[in-house]
User: Fold this.
Amino acid sequence: MKGYLLITGAFLVWSTWGITVRWLGLPAAEIIFFNAVFAAIFQGVWLAARGRREGARLMPDIVPSLLLGLFGLVNLLSFVYALKATTVAAALMTHYIAPVLVAVLAPLTVKDSVGRDTLAALAAAAAGLVFIFAGGLDFSDGRGIIGAASGALSGLAYAGVILYSRALSPRNHPLKLSGVQAVLTIALVGAFIPWLNFKTPNVAQLSVIALTSLFHSTLANVSYLKGIRSVTAQEAGALGYLEPVMGITLAFIFLGEVPYPAALAGGALIIASGVSVIYRGSKGVRKTGGVL
Assistant:
């Protein structure tokens, strides 16, 4: 039960990404870069305070850890862009194609067995995406389509995050894994700063980014990585459907965004597919972890 609570807590924190990104009003790459800088500081201090030398034990898993960091970067960068380019509802619902992809891939990668009707769930989720792209987007200038596509890309990357987290978390400290992502993000995004035309955030924006880094990218990341040690990749993906429910609710309350009917219909199909995955697929699941 503790694993489920840790993962649920992480998703509740992450559900506030939409209103945070909208309030900041900064380019996606700039938000991600400064978020990673603060995350590296917080996580470095935390590790130092614990007196651990986790980095010394990173080498056996260096390649998969870097891949986890890369998937995490693509996931967050494309998701933040989607939140800026289309409605919060469309960004979240396209992003949450990930759990169904995990249900398909988990038996082949981390040896979490999968229940029946996975292909039916995948078809339902694909139909949901069609609904969203067909009539559930905002902005008539084409940015809505690009935003939804970016949301779907973040979903693909998020599937990789789930699978690599499930494989690596049983044998690696969560601060170490989270720290790799922060450092990799600083290196890769920082390399493009001369071409990204960054503007210096003001004090208020930096303060919000710092808080976001502490709660979203440090505490929630550690909570998720601890929780997934005892929760299958399939279950972790399906638990994530708490995020769009909360995220869309917060966008309605604080941003006044009312989802299009087609977006709600498509999102309902995607969410229903994920719910069916956890209820039908969790029976007989072996919570082994590892591999990859």
Notes: The chain has a mean pLDDT of 81.
